[in-house]
Design goal:
The chain has ten helices and eight strands. The protein has about 230 residues and is of the alpha/beta class. The strands form two sheets. The chain has a six-stranded parallel beta sheet with strand order 5-4-3-6-7-8, with helices on both faces. Strands 1-2 form a two-stranded parallel sheet. It is globular and about 60 Å long.
Length: about 230
């Protein structure tokens, strides 16, 4: 019989509490804070996207598919541009919606990125947009935060666990689409130093979720149940 049941989020632990599983505890997912680092920001990367130093890059990373709600991100960027904000949506990934999304105004697709190329893309952006309402976790949010990006996300999965509204970015605790769009437009409007401040807070939060930190937590848990 198991002595412990580990789950990645507190919300999942709450959902399983009624089943009285043995030793139910939360062990969060880690993120590679050495790979995903804001110091990898690259003017050359931004130039390859057609972006100058004062342009705002709103980044999305993931499968280019309808269930990811990239249309909401594109709509938010379009609204901000209509209000004078020099923003562009850069999407990293591939999928069945690629051709359609490529045809939208002020949307730039990079294709799939991995490793250092992906880390450089994160660090070279200014804001992370995560509109999906179907995520069970969402590792990309932690990668973006580790890269020093403030985020706009729906309050579920990783966002509910790690993103504090007003501290690390903008968390929208409803699955209605319009409030998320409005939050994204507001995030694109804030002064650059405010985005940087929230991005630094996001990076600091992720240092506590590095894989070394997660392993330390796991080892401490093993010692705890081993001695019980």
């Amino acid at each position: 019989r198991a002595r412990s049941t580990l789950v990645p989020t507190a919300s999942l632990a709450r959902g399983l509490a009624a089943y009285h599983l043995p030793g139910l505890a939360v062990l969060g997912r880690g993120v590679d804070t050495a790979l995903f680092d804001p110091r990898k920001r690259s003017p050359d990367e931004r130039a390859a996207w057609g972006m100058g130093p004062t342009d705002i890059v709103a980044l999305g990373v993931g499968r280019l598919a309808p269930e990811k709600d990239w249309d909401d991100a594109a709509e938010a960027v379009a609204r901000a541009r209509a209000q004078g904000v020099p923003a562009t949506l850069v999407l990293v990934g591939d999928g069945p919606d690629r051709a359609r999304l490529a045809g939208l105004p002020h949307v730039h697709l990079t294709g799939v990125r991995r490793g250092e190329d992906l880390a450089r893309a994160y660090a070279s952006a200014d804001l992370f947009l995560f509109p999906s309402r179907t995520e069970t976790f969402g590792n990309v949010l932690q990668e973006a935060m580790a890269s020093g990006l403030p985020a706009v996300a729906v309050g579920r999965g990783a966002a509910r666990e790690v993103l504090v509204d007003g501290v690390h970015g903008w968390r929208v605790d409803t699955e209605e689409r319009e409030p998320w769009r409005q939050a994204a437009v507001a995030a694109l409007h804030v002064a650059p130093d405010q985005r940087v401040h929230r991005g630094r807070a996001a990076r600091a939060a992720m240092l506590d979720r590095s894989w070394d930190a997660i392993v330390d937590t796991f080892e401490a848990h093993l010692h705890e149940i081993g001695g019980s």
